[in-house]
Design a protein that fits this description.
single chain; alpha/beta; Arc Repressor Mutant, subunit A; Rossmann fold; 2 domains; 5-stranded parallel beta sheet; two-stranded antiparallel ribbon; 6 helices; 17% strand; elongated
Length: 199
Amino acid sequence: MAAFQDTRAQTEQKVMVHLLTEIERNPSFTQRSLASELGIALGLMNQYLKSCVTKGWIRASQISPRRITYFLTPEGFKEKSHMVTSYLARSLTFFRDARAQCDALFEECLQKGWKKIAFVGEGDLADIAQLVAHGLGFQVCIVSGEDDLKSYDAVLVTDVINPQGTHDFIQSKVDPERLLILGLLHISRNSSVVREVVT
């Protein structure tokens, strides 16, 4: 759950940084185009804008009945700078932790002779794990929990959105000793045999 909350907070912060940057760069943007660019619903974009106005980060000026221009306030510039710094620090920390835990886990796999590993879950963690695995000569494949997992030497949960749900869904499909999890996902295990690496 903690990984989900971190990811949600990072996603919201990323949207806010992008929104404030776009307002600074182009005050006459359309909510629809920005929502589409960020991959979020138009209503959610409207909520983000209202939140920024309420917090004093942006000011809105109505040009016509259907057109509003937004301006970044001095508080908005300051908050944007703070968010960018925080986001970058958190991203780098996540990368370092993920890389270190993947290194340790893959070293154990090498000692056991496991070279073919399936990753269940796409995203940043899967990308980091792939980089580490390829550097050590592993054969990796990103799969879904629906795929046949028995053809792999081991299976690593790389889903940061719902790591516990993914683990619970696939645990009956994989030998518990070969179901790998990383400590940074905070997955609760039903079996004490599942390997967890924390560095």
